[in-house]
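Researcher: Good morning. I'm working through a list of sequences from a screen, and I'd like to move beyond sequence-only analysis. For each chain I'm collecting a predicted structure so we can compare shapes side by side. This is the next one on the list. No need for commentary yet; just the structure.
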Amino acid sequence: MSNHPVIWRPNEHADEYIVYIEDVEEWIKWKEDKSIAMALFVAQFSIFKSSTSGHTGTLGEISKQEIENVFFGNDKNVKDKSPE
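Model: Good morning. Structure tokens for this chain:
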């Protein structure tokens, strides 16, 4: 299987974050049913961002601190910002 990037941006002025998935069909199912194990479609449990603006350029894995700030915030619960 080949890897497909899923790009997420918290808002229009924020950095873009990228996760690679292997199975697009399973990912689409997961968006509707969160009980599906992410291990079925996530290629690597790492989050990347570009060293330049946008999703072009050299990708680097983000730090644990950035994961904490962007995805968890102050309440330590994952923010669900996915489009419905």
